[in-house]
Write a sequence for this structure.
């Protein structure tokens, strides 16, 4: 049975089945860790690296993956990468530690700067909060955080062809605003912010609900997905009746019309990257 939230329910997060075994299997797939940077990476990687203060000599990256960011930090810095995926860590140039982000085998105050990009949106609430606290423990001074900005994650949903579970194909579980990010890092003050990539295409939550719930229309054959509920990799799009196709098409066309009419300045960037500094001595 699918567990999609209705449009009026809040807060805005996926109620994903979150079987850790399936999640780990997804991140151990070698094909998702190519060296190649996608078009958004070409913008956000240099923008993020450019925000690292010169005073940051020891940099710990939490959820560093294959070192896409860490490997490009200043050569003079001491690099430490933490990730759960042994497959990804093989490409890290620096000290690589296989560990969970919420329990890092690092001393308190071990880093001048803790970097964490495109990780928090993947974590269930408890793990996300624990990871944020762990990052605060490990850094002496700075936190550099990147997350998708005001993402309409419902637009990336696939429906598992085996169990019917509906989930975001990238494993994103929630939508971040500047304020929700700041709340997570209480005790730290934002000292620099960059909005990178964009503008983001507009998606109406209600029109997506119409397309998905009434029209049974989801992404098909999403690359490399593993259902977080049952572990199946089959994400073929569901079969639809004619009336469902018509409803989905109308929802799609209405969304396209709003997207075209909406002024670009109203559309958020793809990503927010924010540098925080500890605001009090501990
Ligand atoms: Zn499934």
């Amino acid at each position: 049975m699918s567990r999609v939230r209705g449009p009026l329910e809040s807060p805005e997060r996926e109620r994903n089945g979150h079987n850790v075994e399936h999640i780990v299997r997804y991140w151990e797939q070698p094909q998702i860790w190519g060296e190649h940077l996608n078009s958004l990476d070409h913008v956000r990687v240099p923008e993020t690296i450019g925000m690292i203060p010169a005073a940051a000599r020891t940099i710990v990256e939490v959820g560093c993956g294959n070192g896409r960011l860490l490997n490009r930090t200043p050569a003079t810095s001491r690099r430490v990468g933490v990730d759960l995926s042994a497959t990804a860590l093989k490409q890290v140039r620096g000290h690589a530690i296989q560990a969970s982000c919420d329990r890092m085998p690092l001393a308190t105050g071990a880093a001048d700067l803790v970097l964490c990009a495109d990780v928090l949106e993947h974590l269930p609430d408890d793990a996300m909060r624990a990871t944020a606290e762990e990052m605060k423990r490990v850094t002496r001074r700075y936190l550099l955080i990147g997350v998708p900005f005001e993402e309409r994650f419902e637009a990336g949903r696939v429906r598992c062809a085996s169990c019917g579970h509906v989930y975001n194909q990238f494993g994103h579980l929630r939508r971040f605003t500047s304020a929700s990010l700041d709340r997570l890092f209480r005790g730290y003050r934002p000292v620099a912010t960059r909005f990178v990539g964009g503008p983001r295409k507009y998606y109406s939550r209600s029109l997506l609900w119409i397309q998905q719930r009434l029209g049974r229309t989801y992404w098909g054959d999403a690359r490399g997905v593993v259902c977080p509920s049952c572990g199946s990799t089959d994400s073929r799009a569901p079969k639809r009746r004619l009336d469902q196709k018509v409803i989905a098409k109308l929802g799609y066309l209405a969304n396209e019309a709003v997207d075209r009419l909406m002024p670009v300045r109203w559309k958020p960037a793809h990503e927010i990257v924010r540098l925080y500094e500890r605001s009090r001595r501990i």
User: Anything to note?
Assistant: The pocket of zinc ion is lined by residues 160, 162-163, 165, 227, 229-230, 232 (CB under 6 Å). Residues 20-278 form a domain with the Rossmann fold fold (CATH 3.40.50.150). The chain has one domain: 20-278.
